[in-house]
Amino acid sequence: MTHKTRGRDTRFIFFPWFFGALFLAGIVHIVSIFAMPWLAPKDAFARMAAAAPAHQLILLPDPTPQSGAPYDDPALVQGVCRYDLSQGRLRLRAMLPPDELLLMSFHGRQGQVYYSMTDRSATRGVLDVLIVTRAQLDLVEANDKEDELPQDLRIIAPTLEGFILLRSLSERPSLREEARQRISSMSCGLDGEGKP
Fold this sequence. Notes:
This protein is an alpha+beta fold. The protein folds into 2 domains: 1-39; 44-190, Sandwich (Immunoglobulin-like). It is built from 4 helices and 9 strands. The protein has helices spanning 3-39, 44-51, 134-142, 176-184, and strands at 57-59, 76-84, 90-95, 102-107, 113-118, 126-132, 153-156, 161-169, 187-190. The longest helix has 37 residues, at 3-39. It starts with a helix and ends in a 6-residue tail after the last strand.
């Protein structure tokens, strides 16, 4: 066997190991990215759980350069309502004044947004949202009257635990208290009809 042939054999042995290591590194990288939300000790839900008890609307402190989340808008007043659907259905209600921007985002246990809406979703200034599991929705629909359309918006949550983030726009610092009142006037708690 010549020196040239031995060099070619060495390259053929090296390539499978190289591509195998590259493939394994890619798998480890992808798995670590997908595992991060479950392994991170201070994810969005953990921060909201520390700030708010379940089934109660809490105003969040005004953002500061030290305490605010990245990209927090200082013109927005924020509130949060954390829920646990294993304890029952959650109902969010509000009487909304016209022409006042209110944003709502619904987050699952891993912090992912599964629904979002604005005050424009209110019917004649009344917002009525029911957060349920599939089994809870089936029970609610079984008790609906056949000749009446539901007056509430029903949203199926992807996880039993999650939170609703509410944001109200304060166009000027002098209007900040009004924005806080808009969020404080909302009710967020277990549905009065009980749980299945």
